[in-house]
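hey
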């Protein structure tokens, strides 16, 4: 049984705080109905601790939460106006043996509880609700002041196999470690989120695409070490997609869709089992002498063509370079005339031999190109 408390703390202005509390909790209730049992339990346990100082067990927390919501639903079905949530909570505890006398939360506790509603309890990152609200604000600022703002969407490749092979408890540890890595790697100005099961997001204000690429690439490189202690049988990895406002998009939905599309392309390029087969077959050219001359900033760099398809090209450089996400390329294939085209960098990696691998998509001729990427 959790600890008991007594006393009723009241300050001047409590009625205003209580009204604010009620409005806030109504939003919390709506959101909680979409959570799974484990997440509801964690939310309820923290909620009851904040408002009553009770340390309830998981079972007690979930039981109390469900009974309180059922009570409100019964009143609504009967045509009665449901009690304010805090009144329903007090009614429940008064009829249980958990409290001698109810405790009204102080304003500082209410502030902390409001903050917790925007946090993911497993990873400590902000949640999807907070993400959606902040993305709109950051997009508006980027468009209004013409400031570069980058969005990185990430997920864990082969994460489902981790749950299948090791169980959901281990899967939760992977998510927690991923959240810890993302949170600890972020700058003070960056914003970090868990937006779905194994999906994460990173908002980078005042950051161009190349800066976001560097940050995301570093996270991907560090991820295997972050989960090394779990000794997983599955080679789970971090995949990502990036988009930058306002040049590439001027609305939050468009920016998200573009980053999501690039995340999908990244996962498809590394053979993710969660992605559909490639839309176009690849022609492997690693030993044919095919090469490409990459051009940006009035300089040219030679790369080996590893594979080729209607949708894009795979490249390899013997010396790693800082390559922009868009650039011109003149591709030389066996028995064909050279092809001059514009490429968009979908992903890049550096292997243990210090070879740099690029996956690039062809840019349609009618799509604009950034000034920074022009030769």
């Amino acid at each position: 049984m959790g600890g008991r408390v007594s006393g009723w703390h009241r300050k001047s202005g409590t009625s205003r705080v209580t009204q604010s509390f009620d409005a806030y909790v109504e939003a919390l209730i709506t959101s909680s109905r979409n959570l799974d049992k484990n997440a509801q339990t964690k939310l309820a346990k923290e909620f009851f601790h904040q408002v009553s100082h009770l340390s309830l067990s998981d079972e007690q927390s979930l039981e109390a939460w469900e009974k309180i919501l059922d009570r409100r639903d019964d009143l609504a079905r009967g045509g009665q106006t449901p009690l304010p949530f805090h009144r329903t909570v007090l009614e429940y505890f008064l009829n249980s043996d958990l409290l001698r006398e109810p405790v009204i939360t102080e304003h500082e506790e209410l502030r902390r509880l409001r903050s917790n509603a925007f946090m993911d309890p497993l990873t400590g990152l902000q949640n999807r609700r907070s993400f959606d609200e902040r993305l709109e604000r950051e997009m508006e600022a980027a468009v209004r002041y013409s400031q570069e703002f980058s969005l990185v969407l990430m997920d864990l490749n082969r994460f489902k196999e981790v749950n299948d092979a090791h169980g959901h408890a281990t899967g939760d540890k992977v998510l927690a470690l991923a959240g810890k890595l993302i949170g600890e790697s972020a700058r003070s100005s960056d914003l970090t989120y868990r937006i779905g099961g194994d999906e994460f997001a990173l908002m980078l204000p005042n950051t161009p695409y190349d800066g976001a690429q560097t940050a995301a690439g570093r996270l991907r490189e560090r991820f295997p070490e972050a989960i090394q202690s779990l000794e997983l049988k599955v080679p789970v990895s971090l995949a990502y997609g990036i988009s930058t406002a306002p040049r590439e998009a001027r609305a939050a939905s468009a920016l998200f869709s573009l980053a999501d599309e690039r995340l999908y392309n990244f996962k498809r390029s590394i053979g993710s089992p969660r992605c559909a087969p490639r839309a176009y077959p690849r022609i492997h050219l690693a030993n044919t002498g095919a090469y490409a001359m990459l051009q940006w900033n009035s300089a040219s760099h030679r790369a080996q063509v590893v594979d080729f398809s209607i949708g894009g090209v795979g490249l390899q450089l013997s010396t790693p370079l800082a390559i922009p996400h868009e650039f011109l390329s003149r591709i030389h294939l066996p028995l064909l005339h050279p092809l001059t085209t514009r490429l968009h960098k979908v992903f890049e990696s550096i292997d243990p031999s210090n070879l740099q691998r690029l996956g690039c998509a062809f840019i349609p001729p009618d799509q604009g190109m950034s000034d920074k990427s022009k030769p």
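The longest strand covers residues 339-350. The mean pLDDT is 79.
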